Amino acid sequence: MLLSAASELTLGMGEVLEERVERVLGLHLLKFTEVLKESCLSILPHLLCEYLNDLIEKFDRYHTFYGSCVSEGRYFIGIKHKFWQVGIAAEPKTRLLLYEAIAIVMKKCFHLLGINSESSSFEVSIAKSLLAQSSSKRPMDVNAPVADLESDNKKQKRVVGAGTSVDNVITRLPSPIARDPPRNPRFEPFSILLNITKDSEFTKGKLLGNISVADTFGLLSDQWVQSYEPDCCHVSLFNHEWFDSIDINNYDSLYFGNTSSRHSVAFSSAMEICIKLFVTTENKDALYQLCDHQSDMDFSKFWEKDTDSTCGALMATGLDGHIMMHYILLKDAVDAVLELTCTSLADNLKVYGVIYAYYGGNFDYQCDDEFLKNSYMSLLYQDDPDSVLSGAKIPLRKSVIAVPNKGGSLVIKAKLTDESGNVILSKYCEFPSQTQGSRGDDLDGLGCSFRLQVIWSQGRGCSKGGSYLL
User: Fold this and answer.
1) Is residue 127 one of the residues assigned to a domain?
2) Is the alpha carbon torsion for 149, 155, 156, 160 positive or negative?
3) What residue numbers bound the domain in which 391 lies?
4) Which top-level group of life is the source organism from (predicted)?
5) DSSP secondary structure letters along 210-223
6) How confident is the model at residue 15 (pLDDT cuts 50, 70, 90)?
7) Are strands 235-240 and 352-359 parallel, antiparallel or unpaired?
8) Percent residues over pLDDT 90 in the chain
9) Domains identified in the chain, total number
């Protein structure tokens, strides 16, 4: 009766899903087409089973939230649900429309999986075997839940209609658990090499625009920040407007700062990237389109390889130039949060120079060219003497870096000078990766000293927002 009433309703202007649980349920319904696309492209039907299980759990929480339940419950697809005792007239329109949408999506899932209430035991066993096999072969969903399959002689029963007992064709999946060993795949961007080709006399200018990425299918959730909304949105790697454009030189490499998500970027089998960059002259009297690019980067082949990491480069073009973006993919990573504090500083000393970070532990950069290797570094500090104050933390250009988990390490290399160019500090230190805890080291120079702290984590991001700076 509820569904028949809902089919005659439409959502009018100004009528929205007001409650959080309603929005979560509605947004999950909108993900159906994405899950279906991924399931078809990857030939992994168990993704629909996982999606259907999540839908049922969210539907269950939706009922619990309102709490208007009858004392007697029913079993619905292996999960106990309680239904409202109030009449149809008392049901809000949005709630009725949600019922109808849920019923349509569930019916479509059952149809695509070849499951119905009249399925034979043979068909049920095939569906269960297909679910188990596809789950074990999936290369990109590294934290996929494992099906809780039952033996044939312990099949659940449910009551349908007037006491007719049939085999329960849906096996409930448990909450997602990490496989052994757990994986924490990360996409770590490092730098872009830019080139204005339209104007041969162009040497210096200002850069503005946006670079953002997103896990295409949203398979890996962000477990570091509690959120009730989908967390597979775009993450900004670079975001500068006309008024805060940054100085650049043609043919130079620019290094990425912190991301807008405050931690490294997760990825699965594909990642969508959007790049829109423009360059002006120093006086802003001419504008060039450096890059206008949007595509899906396919990483499925990376999961088929035995290696745990790979270096990548993406070339993207515009009307007046092109860029080369350098990044590294890590199958299992930890986040290193860096803090640099100036513990002492001589009077009137101005600190210039650079501090870089890169992977140690014999990391395979897959090239011997030192210039190319420099494209896979992170620039932490460069010629900013006003930010160096005694007893204060130095704001780093990049303070969160994904590092290989097993056998990985992070190398910090500092070369600082005074205002005259004389070297006052030259230090190299290496920090082996770990899943939690912190390590520190002292950087002592002529007239200055610093304390570098590396905080390791797989469960939380940076405590402060990123700057998007290059």
Assistant:
1) no
2) positive
3) 334-461
4) Eukaryota
5) EEEEEETT--S---
6) low
7) unpaired
8) 39
9) 3
Whole-model pTM: value is 0.61
- Same domain for 315 and 443? no
Give the pLDDT confidence score for residue 178 in this predicted structure.
Answer: 33
Phi-psi region of 353 (alpha: psi -120 to 50; beta: other; left: phi over 0): left
Cα–Cα nearest to 336, from 206, 231, 182, 457: 457
249 shares its domain with 373: no
Q: Report if residue 149 sits inside a domain.
A: no
One domain for residues 192 and 311: yes
**Domain termination residue (choose one: 298, 314, 331):** 331
Q: Whose CA is closest to 273, among 309, 303, 235, 311? A: 235
412, 310: one domain: no
Task: Answer yes or no: do 300 and 191 share one domain.
Answer: yes
**pLDDT value of position 217:** 58
- Given a contact cutoff of 8 angstroms between Cβ atoms, the answer to whether 102 and 29 are in contact is yes
Residue 65: band (very low, low, confident or very high) from pLDDT cuts 50, 70, 90: low
Task: Report, as an integer, the average pLDDT of 74-82.
Answer: 35
Cα–Cα distance measured from residue 325 to residue 315, given in angstroms and rounded to the nearest whole number: 6
What pLDDT does 172 receive? 36
Structure tokens at 69: 């339940």
Q: Kindly report which listed range (84-93, 168-177, 441-450) carries the lowest average pLDDT score.
A: 168-177
